[in-house]
User: What shape does this take?
Amino acid sequence: LKEVRQALSVVDDSERPTLFDALAVTNDRGIKELESDIPWLERLLLEQESERLLQDAKSLVSAERELRSLMEQLKKSDDAATRAEVMKKLQEFLANVDRMGQMMQQSARPSPLENINRAGLQPGEMHGLMDVRKNVESLMDLVKSGRLDEALAAMDALGQSVQGLSSRLEDELEGGVGGEAAPGTAELRRLST
Assistant: This one.
């Protein structure tokens, strides 16, 4: 504002209306660009959060495979060291699931619907994370109690829930975020990685 006042002080009175008109047009154009860029940036941030969650889900899939291998090893040998390793991996798995849940809660967007029955809403079980968590807790109980045949069967349920979680996140990322690309999209993507 100070610069505008200084510039106007050196301009004669006949040019002022023209300069004000040019400034108003420029200001309106800048506002319109910002109004279109803000939703685009919000979509970009949402897409990045979804990609990060998808990467975490894929790491859960590989951790589940590793856990399955350890469970089969435990079934063959049933020694204390392997059992401790399985329990450690289960604890790590559970911690990763909880971390993903926290990320999902932090990135949750409020609904634009004002008259929605919030009590009737189901949270979608946070993309299946609750199912994964229940399966891991059940598996931990089975391993602790030494019921390894049942634990191996529970690994199938865990594998299905983890795979379902990953698939839902991938479908959401492919289908829902999209939108028109604003200028500089490639550059912003490059900078954000």
Q: What stands out?
A: Helices lie at 2-9, 16-77, 80-106, 125-144, 148-176, 185-192. The CA atoms of residues 47 and 177 lie 6 Å apart. Confidence is low (pLDDT under 50) at residues 117-122, 177-190.
